[in-house]
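User: Please predict the structure of the protein below. I'd like the answer in C-alpha cell form so I can feed it into my own downstream comparison script.

Assistant: Understood. Taking the following sequence of 455 residues as input:
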Amino acid sequence: MEQAQNVTAVPLPPGPDGLPLLGVLPGVWKDPLGFFLKAAVDYGPVARLQMGPKDFYLVSGPEEVKYVLQENHHNYRKGYDQARPLFGDGLLTSDGEEWLRRRRMIQPMFNRTRLSFFSQFMTQATEEMLDRWETLADQGIIDAAHEMMKLTQTIIVRSMFSSDVGEEAARLGAAFDDTLEYLNRILFAPHPALAELPSAATRRNRRALAYLDAFIYRLIERKRASGEDTGDLLSLLVLARGEDGQPSLTDAQVRDELMTIFLAVHETTANALAWTWYLLGLNPDVEARLVEEIDTVLGGSPPAYDDLEKLRYTPLVLHEAMRLYPPAWMFVRHAIADDELGGYRIPAGEMVMISPYVTHRLPQHWENPEAFDPERFTAERSAGRHKFAYFPFGGGPRLCIGNNFALIEAQLILVRVLQRFRLRLALVPGSRVIPTPIATLQPKPGVPIRLERRY
C-alpha cells in the first residue's frame, strides 16, 4: 500500500449516520466496544465516524493497521495530548527525533539480562500475595482484578525503585490511581474543556500529580547525589550518559519516563491477568490443561525466568485472553498530511483510531472470534495469519517498549498462582463481568473468585 501523493479526489470512507451536533457520540457513550465493532463489520476496514464536531477514522483491517503503524508511521503522530499533564514528554507522548533518541536509550533497559533481574521482584511479590491468600482462602470471595492490580503495582514500584518504598507505598499507589481515574474520565469527553470543569476527580488528580512529582523528584535528587547503581529503572534512567559523559536525561525527562513505564506495565498487565482468571473460570477444561502442563514441566518448583521457555501452552492462554480482552483496547494517531488508506482519503489533521479489540474479533480474520480457544495461537493455526490481525502491544517502531516485561510478569504470576491455588469464579446468578473501555479495558465490577488451596 503506497502513500498517495494527491488524494483530494479520493472519496472519504463510509460510515454510520449521526445526529446533528452530536454525530454518533450517543452510540459510543452507550456501548463503545459494540459500536466500534459493528462499524468495522458494517463499513469495512476504514470507517468515518462523526463524533461531535469532528470526524474520526476507525481503522480495523490488518493491512490498513500495518500501514498506519508501520509502513507510513511518519505521517501519523501520537494522539495523547490530553495525557501530557501525567506523562509529560515521555515515550508515550513524544514524537520525531526526540522520541527516537529516548527509545534507543531506554530499549536496552528491557533486555534479557535486565528482565531476568526484574523477575526477582515479580516472583517475590507474587509469593507474598499468595502467603496472604492463605489467610483469605476460608473467608469467602475476593476480587481477582483488585488483587492483580495491587500485585502488579508492587512489582513495578520495586522495579522502578529497587525495593518497597515503605510507608510511602500505599500513598504512591493511591496517587497513581487518582491520576489514572482522571485520565479515564477525559478520554471520551465531548470537548476537552469539559474535562477541566471543577470536580472531585479533577481535585484529586491535581493533588496526586503534586505528590507524585515531589516524590519522584526527591528520589532522582538522591540518586544523582549517591551515583549508586542498584539495577532498578530509576538508576538506569538517572545514570545514563551520552557520548560526552553528561547525563542523557534531565530530571523532568526521568520523571516523564517513570510515569510512562508505570502505566505501560502496571495496569495493562493487571487487566490482562484479571481477564485470564475470568476466562479460565468459564473454561475449566482449559484451566485443567494449563495446570497439567505447569505440574508436568515444573514439578511443583516455583517458576524462574529461565523456566518460561519450557512452557508451551501457558503463553497461548495469555495470548488468547489478550486477543479477546486486549488491555490497550484502542490507539490514537493524528494524520499529519493528507493520505490515502484502503482506497479512501484521510484528511490532514484528522484523528485515526485503531482498536485491537475490534480487529481481534473480525470474523474474516478469526474463526469463531467470540470463543476462548488458546490453540488458535499454535504455529500450525497461526500460519498465514496477517501479522496485524493480532497486536495487543501495538506494532511498528512504536511497539510497546514494556511488552516483554509484561508477558514475563504475567506468565510468572499465572504459573505460581496455579501451583498453589485454584481460582473458582464466584459470579452471582444473573450477574455479569462487563468489559469497560477507559484508559485500559477493565473488568467491571471486578472478577469475583473463591480461593481453593491445591495442597
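That's the full C-alpha cell string. DSSP finds 18 helices and twelve strands in the chain.
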